[in-house]
Amino acid sequence: MIWAINKDGGVQDLSSFIAAWVTPRDLEVQKLIHSAAENPEAKSIGGIVGYQNVKKSRAHNEEMVAPATNLVYITRHLRQGASLSGALKFVSGGANNDINFYFLDSSNFVLFKDGKSFEYHIEGLRASSGYHFNFVSPEENDYYLVFDNRFSTFSDKRVGIAVNIETPLSQKEIVELQAKAIYETIKQNGMNYVNTTVSFAPGNSQRVKRPSDTIKLKGGNCIDGSVLFASCFEAIGGFEPLIVITSGHAFVGLRTWVDSNNYIFIETTAVGSSNFEKALMSQEYVFSIYKEGLKFIDIKKARELGIKPLT
């Protein structure tokens, strides 16, 4: 038997066969992982990297046109370590020097004004095309780009603004990107949910497909899908998957880092009909919905207890 841990800390035993059916070395699973490594979400962090520390950022670029007849505030929320680059691209109805250009923190402290920096975090310069600066946020905060028309006579003045934000990825986001790559690859393979009865009650038997069979048949019930996803996750070096059992249902979980008590959960039955974002469930959501009878089959713990994959 293996240990299943309830969210209240209680320990119960479950049938060991479920962990044994999680087979990361299955040839079909390995093929799927290879395909997932080519998914754009995975390639954005260098492939399927497991729990490695990957220094990657998510870029957000935007260009906008704002009237500058009055003060124009553009608010952006920056995570600690995020960088924001801003530029005044063009001005119609008058010259660039008719515009006051400020960058403020949430307390309205001026960090940058008209080509001059007031904090060491900013490198600013005056260029012929306008004002440019780059800022690295020392803490999570709101920041403001402010444009002020000095001469109200230019009532038709318009300002072109370019903003680029580079946000560092958290450990959880790195894990989610890889989980999304796996999910989308399984979805593209044509996987569908097959609604068959599932019972984990004492005295009842529950048939479970091997992951290779689920892949070839392009379908399975909740436990089949959970075993397939857990097999894929365990095949990624270092990933620590869980199979979560509730009354008549099962889904898969994944630690957000090595030995972490934080998890993401995936409703595997959604793979045939929904995108990853809809299938993804937060830890808070799962624990609030399933208030009783939530059992974790920890695959890492099962291996430590001697329960090995069938193949």
How would you describe this protein?
By secondary structure, the chain is of the alpha+beta class. It folds into two domains: 2-54 and 171-304, C8orf32 fold (Roll), CATH 3.10.620; 57-168, Jelly Rolls (Sandwich). 24% of the residues lie in helices and 35% in strands. It has a seven-stranded antiparallel sheet. A five-stranded antiparallel sheet has the order 3-12-5-10-9, with no helix packed on it. It has a five-stranded antiparallel sheet with strand order 4-11-6-7-8, with no helix packed on it. Strand 1 and strand 2 (11-14) form a beta hairpin. Helix 2 crosses helix 4 (171-188) and helix 5 (211-217) crosses helix 6.
Notable traits:
24% helix, 311 residues, C8orf32 fold, alpha+beta, 9 helices
Please outline the helices and strands:
Elements (H helix, E strand, L loop, with lengths): L1 E4 L5 E4 L2 H4 L6 H10 L3 H4 L13 E11 L4 E7 L4 E10 L6 E7 L4 E4 L2 E2 L4 E6 L2 E7 L4 E9 L8 E11 L2 H18 L3 E2 L17 H7 L1 E2 L1 H14 L5 E6 L2 E7 L7 E4 L9 H4 E3 H7 L5 E4 H6 L7
Parallel strand pairs: 13-14
Antiparallel strand pairs: 1-2, 1-19, 3-12, 4-11, 5-10, 5-12, 6-7, 6-11, 7-8, 9-10, 15-16, 15-19, 16-17, 17-18
